[in-house]
Write a structure and sequence with these properties.
- With 379 residues, the chain is of the alpha+beta class.
- The chain is built from ten helices and four strands.
- The protein has helices at 2-5, 7-12, 50-116, 122-156, 181-191, 193-214, 249-318, 324-359, 368-371, 373-378; strands at 18-23, 37-45, 220-227, 237-243.
- It has a four-stranded antiparallel beta sheet with strand order 1-2-3-4, with no helix packed on it.
- The two termini are 49 Å apart.
């Protein structure tokens, strides 16, 4: 961007003045008094408006590069938030795995006591050992995921991949409701750097079209000369001008048509980009809405029912009215649902990051009562 901005003073500046010198053979003969030399200087001056149009074109190119910086920054912010969500998720899964391992050890102890009292077979104890081994394998997998997430964040921070990081927060909840999608589309059209870049390209092509039109007019060159070849001293100082004659119109007509077509192309690309931005916002909005509804289902219905199922199965097994495999299966399913809940929670954070990138800036959540007061009552 800074490199592109330096084009402006270059294109609006005048060309360097020209200096000329000529000498004749008589000037080398010191015996003669003839002034056998000539000097001249000239300055080219473009037709009125050309320098300004060139400056407009350079400014538009700089604005395009500036918008590219903003777009890169938005992508970096989204990437960072997604990396933080992944880091948060793997820690929550590790905690779940540890808690489930503790519960499974309690189940094994209950099964061992019942086996020693000849109430169940050794199969229950062995099944508990299998589940504990599987949880240990899962721990190894999650530790690998944790190291990968740490390396990704450290890469963003320009640090060594294994540099220690603080633990993520215990909760990364999202408060409030997402604003209406119509509002999000409006602010996206105002914020998105890509649209600003396309608008700058249109301004650049408009300047190029204007420059093609003024190219029909000549450029002047002011000339000052001292011609020592004239014998009369009063005739030696001279002032004049040069100008090009725009006689060949075909190439200028083609330049105007080319600039006009390029301007039409840029305008069509801008309209296409507007459609793409609206689609990006709509898609990201629907994904966020799905995540929020999914989380509410887990919180209000799925997880409470699964927890109650485990408690019932545990009580029934203790009273010797249920086989151990059904208890293990209920606990395994409860763990799976808890993991899915945490994954949905992290996915919501990722989708919110994508929505913010789609609208070109931070998302301000609205209080629940602003849009859906009934939702607040349910929660």
């Amino acid at each position: 961007w800074r490199a592109a901005a330096e084009r402006y003073p270059q294109v609006v500046s005048l060309d360097d003045p020209m200096f000329g010198f000529m000498i004749g053979p008589s000037a080398l003969n010191s015996d003669t008094g003839t002034q056998g030399f000539m000097v001249d200087a000239s300055q080219k001056i473009p037709w009125h408006g050309k320098r300004d149009l060139r400056g407009q074109s350079a400014s538009a190119a700089a604005a395009t590069a500036r918008a590219d910086i903003d777009e890169t920054r938005q992508r970096l912010i989204a990437t960072t938030k997604i990396a933080a969500a992944d880091y948060y998720l793997v820690h929550r899964l590790l905690e779940l795995n540890q808690k489930n391992a503790a519960i499974m050890r309690e189940f094994r102890e209950v099964a061992r006591v019942k086996y020693e009292n000849n109430q169940v077979t050794q199969e229950d104890v062995l099944q508990a050992d299998v589940e504990l081994a599987e949880l240990e394998r899962r721990t190894v997998e999650l530790q690998r995921m944790n190291r990968v997430s740490i390396a990704r964040i450290n890469t963003l921070l320009h640090q060594q991949p294994d540099y220690p990081l603080p633990r993520p927060p215990a909760q990364m909840s999202v408060e409030g409701e997402v604003p209406p999608v119509e509002y999000l589309r409006q602010i996206a059209l105002q914020r998105r750097p890509q649209l600003a870049a396309e608008a700058a390209k249109i301004r650049g092509e408009q300047a190029a079209l204007g420059l093609a039109h003024v190219d029909y007019y000549p450029d002047l060159a002011i000339v000052g000369r001292y011609d020592g070849f004239w014998e009369n001293p009063d005739q030696r100082p001279q002032v004049g001008m040069n100008l090009n004659v725009p006689l060949y119109q075909a190439k200028r007509d083609a330049a105007v048509r080319e600039a006009s077509y390029r301007l039409s192309q840029r305008r069509a690309e801008y309209r296409q980009r507007v459609d793409e931005v609206n689609n990006d916002v709509q898609s990201a909005y629907e994904m966020v809405q799905e995540s929020m509804k999914t989380l509410r289902l887990y919180e209000l219905k799925i997880l409470p029912a699964a927890k109650q199922n485990v408690e019932t199965a545990r009580s029934t097994y203790t009273n010797a009215k249920l086989d151990f495999l059904r208890l293990i299966d209920s606990q395994r399913r409860y763990l799976m649902l808890q993991e899915k809940y945490r994954e949905a929670e992290a996915e919501q954070l990722r989708r919110l990051a994508n929505l913010e990138q789609a609208i070109g800036g931070p998302l301000e959540m609205l209080p629940l009562e602003v849009i859906h007061p009934q939702v607040q009552n349910v929660l």
